[in-house]
Amino acid sequence: MQTVTAVAHRGDPYRFRENTIASLRSALDQGADAVEIDVRLTRDGVPVLLHDETLKRLWGHDRPLRSLSAREVEELTGGGVPTLAEALAATDGNRVMVDLPGGPGVAAVRRIVGVVGDCGAGERVYYCAGAQAMLAVRAADPSAEIALTWTTLAPPRAGLLDAVRPRWLNYRFGLVDRALAAHVHKGGHLLSVWTPDTRRSLRRLLDLGADSVTTNRVDLLSALRGR
Fold first, then answer.
1. Taking the model in full, what pTM does it have?
2. Which of 103, 128, 160, 222 lies at a CB distance of 3.0 to 4.6 Å from 227, suitable for a disulfide?
3. How far is CA 101 from the centre of its chain?
């Protein structure tokens, strides 16, 4: 059976609210090799787990995260939004893919990378997002492992690849075909894909030779790869 890295998208969101400690732990129990989390900063510069700009969709409060302190977020969500440090502690010993949504600036990226280092998690954390965020990660940590998210079939420029030095190229699963997979591997990169959730799409990507699959159904992916 092909070896593929099973990455749990925001944890196990079919069972628990995404980007929560319970969701991350459930995903690992379901066979995930790594958990993917979204990290943003509060007003006072604390990295926390939240994909959206506001608390509305998940927590019912139409408040921008950037306008709230970490203490206010804790009060509004009953402690449901973990800090990055808490998430790293809860996943101790396991791989974590840190996604940086919303185009964070250099200072924000430096803060997030700094917390990862302070938690002693640099060896098990890797980062994904677009070019500007990954350039900032590379500047903050020359040894960081990077999955460069790419959203078009036009390949990344050689100069960008030289600057970012990604281990992975990270594509939306619908873009991936056999030719793209071959091109990624020929360039010396590993192929990461997101976020197929059906049995058919997962099987197709395994057949195409994806090295890593980020999915909301990590239980299904684990079953398909024979774990």
1. 0.97
2. 222
3. 9
Rounded Cα gap, residues 204 and 210, in angstroms = 9
Burial class (CB in 10 A: 0-12, 13-18, 19+), 120: exposed
Q: Is 162 exposed, middle or buried (0-12, 13-18, 19+ CB in 10 A)?
A: exposed
Strands 54-55 and 61-64: antiparallel
Rounded to an integer, what distance in angstroms lies between the CA atom of residue 148 and that of residue 42?
Answer: 25
What residues contact residue 119 under an 8 Å CB cut-off, 6+ apart?
84, 85, 88, 89
Cβ atoms 168, 211 nearer than 8 A? yes
* H or E stretch at 112: helix 106-118
Is 11 within 8 Å of 219 (Cβ atoms)? no
Cα–Cα distances (Å) from 164 to 57, 111, 177, 190, in that order, read 33, 19, 24, 14
How do residues 169-220 score in pLDDT, each as one tens digit? 999 999 999 999 999 999 999 999 999 999 999 999 999 999 999 999 999 9
Q: How far is CA 33 from the centre of its chain?
A: 13
48 membership: H or E segment, kind and range: strand 47-49
Say if strands 61-64 and 95-99 run parallel, antiparallel, or are unpaired.
unpaired
